[in-house]
Amino acid sequence: MRFRIRTLLLFLTTFFVSQKFINAQIRLPNVFGDSMVLQRGIKIPVWGNSTPGAIVVAKLGNIQATAKADREGKWLLRFPVFKEGGPYVLEVAESGKPDAGIRLKGILIGDVWLASGQSNMEWQVQQAKDAGKEIANANFPQIRFLVVEHSKQVRPQTDIAAGRWKVCDSGNVKDFSAVAYYFARKIHQDRRVPVGIIQSTWGGTPIEAWTSRDMLLTSPITREKTLSNDTLAPDREDFVQDSLNLVRFWNIIYNPQNNTDKIVPATGYDDTDWTAVEMPNLVKGFGIGSYEGMVWLRKKITLPQSFEQKDLTINLGHPEMNYSLYFNGQEICKNVWNSSPTHSYTIPANLVKNGENTIAVRIAMLWNGGGLNPADDIYITDGSVKISLSGKWLYKKDLETALPKILNYQYYPTVLFNTMINPVIPFGIKGFIWYQGESNAGAAYDYRKLFPMLITDWRKRWQQGDLPFLFVQLANYMKTKPLPSESEWAELREAQSLTLSQPNTGMACIIDIGEANDIHPKNKQEVGRRLALIANKMVYKQEGIPSGPVYKNYRKEGNRIRISFTNIGLGLSTKDGKEVIGFAIAGTDKQFYWAKATIEGNEVIVYSDKVAEPVAVRYAWADNPECNLINSENLPAIPFRTDEWKGITQK
């Protein structure tokens, strides 16, 4: 029966596709639209579909270009070089059929950048630092964004699933990539040209998902895993079901099930069979293993009479990204992907009771994470008296529909290249900005090959030469360790630094603005600014120092090692004005010790009383290093090591 249904569906699909082919009209892919930005300074490519053999006539402003559709109805034309400006109208039609053509308006000519990567590039303006103020002031009509909708396929696609160009204003900017927006804003302000961003991002994804099949098959690192994708097919049941499950998965997280939001937070709800847990605590402290799903927390707290009829402030520290807070049965907040810039909320006076009050939190436990960060203070206050919320809480899982199992095919090799990169080629661009690597940290040594592969792959396919490729090095993250140690994240940063050997690449170091308890640091303004500094220097040929000190070489002087740097500007110093920290030194036994370091002119002298015959130095070599060396532009020194000893990710 299933075979007959599939056969019928295949017949109907073939029939309608054939009818569409026979009655074809002019069509442009979704990367083109009203309010888009087209690339200045190059011959502008425009492509689409039409009747096979038809002559396609396009007009941009007063300039006309033509092309002939091939036997499949595909065509591509190029306009001559335009300078920045606009707005223009683009008209495209088959010759002799102007009334059946396409007309796109509000088009600007400027610089277009493709912004891609995982969640730190995807992180929205509304989720980042100073969101309210930034959104209110986002009046930049010459900045435009096209946010490519998430999509995954096992074969290269010719069009993006969805997405349209939007003008940057207070209504639209909140959904844009924060890093890409702050990059675009500085480029626009510095260069006085329109800026377009094609945003193609997906959180949690590895670099292999963004690389083409052809390129992945060239490396023994990725060949076998890529070939395993051949067992997939677009209509394979689990591939289709995974997309459906993904919709259900997030629907459950965003929308309380079984009417729990009305029942569980109520003051009279019976929670006598719930389990006690000390809060704040993370998922491991709940003793529920690798549980993934929705967990409810409740706490009854007696407030002093002085709190009655007052607006109160409740602070939850730093909860895991998706949660809702209730007070005496009323929803106080619904936080989606850390959409709140802080986790302090106002409890209206009319909800506050003298005596016992009930706090409830609905929180998503995802990817072996979740809960309230133990490092944070949780409390409720009237502004003068603060009452701790730490201590005994009650929790209950499985009150809601279980989350469906997600196979996460977006993590598979090449599936995102197929749907979110390939369809926008060969749209004219100025270059790429990239923020990714967290998902590859466990195999950081392989990233030395994988990252240059992606850069080469994309440049080859765009056929615009060695397009500028600017990227962000991983920030400092996780718990600071008391002693020098090995680090997957340090090795990933090293792989990123080594990629600078590729032509026309630039790296923004952000080792000083990460957050120990958040893989998504909030200060995206500085990330975008530092990317723009590199673009101004490397791409737009502006004078200046675009990044922090870069390790150049070293030489031994007895029991000391002298380190030389480039990119020092007017000199080296420390960010806090204190002594230099972040250096470690080792002898032939490969045992590292924290080192003393002093600045002498344009060099740093490193030594330790515990290492009589030093042979190696490392700087900022940790998940979350304490380091403070900067140049005269207040930009941080890039992490490095002088040794080439085998790392923990090297097989």
From TrEMBL:
Signal sequence range: none
Keyword flag Hydrolase: yes
Membrane-crossing residue ranges in chain numbering: none
Superkingdom as given in the UniProt entry: Bacteria
Alphabetized GO MF terms: hydrolase activity, hydrolyzing O-glycosyl compounds; sialate O-acetylesterase activity
Gene Ontology biological process terms in this record: carbohydrate metabolic process
Record protein name field: Sialate O-acetylesterase
